Predict the 3D structure of the following.
Amino acid sequence: MIILIGLATVISTFFGGLFALRFKDKLHLILGFSAGAVIGVALFDLLPESIELSRNNFEIGLIVSFVAIGFFAYMLLDRLINFHCPEQDCENQRHRGKLGAASLSVHSFLDGLAIGLAFQVSPAVGFIVATAVLVHNFCDGINTVSVILKNKGSVKEALRWLAADALAPALGIFATLFFSLPLAILGIILAVFCGFFLYIGASDLLPESHHGHSTKLTTLMTIIGAIIIYFAIRLMG
């Protein structure tokens, strides 16, 4: 089953990139939905699950602190890999595009780790995390193509980076087949991934979805994304 999910992450990312090439004018709605879904997974599933798994071994305050660690660690990774400079100040835009695409591939690999480790907790948790990651990977594919094309890269170059980004989550899932962790430690790791997802949703997807567009529809799509994840988690118990 986990192999099929790994294949699904590849397909989701790749189709996201193809979607970006075909429907550039509607991407803000997709990103808005994805932001709500990713944040919903962090708040409605990963955080409660991490507390449930680790509270017999760690204080709740410490568990929540690991959420913050995950958030800021992901922020530092994002800032270190990407050059966040104004477009007019970047002399080598193609190089900047490659760095952006590389960072998305790293993000996707971490998403694959999240899926594999979540399945070590339980199939239900694994499927919930996989659902969120599949939505996020679709957007990763969109963003990978967009960042290359925006920075003067060719369509062929965008497709090459899209292929790398599509394979990254599958490699992350595959890596988790070779190790397992105690439930309490898994709870801490889920807390860290909760911080990752909060950063991705709040700092990457939400701002991008509102950039240059009316906030009404994108806000509605964000709320719909969160509500769908909430009820999916409730239905799966």
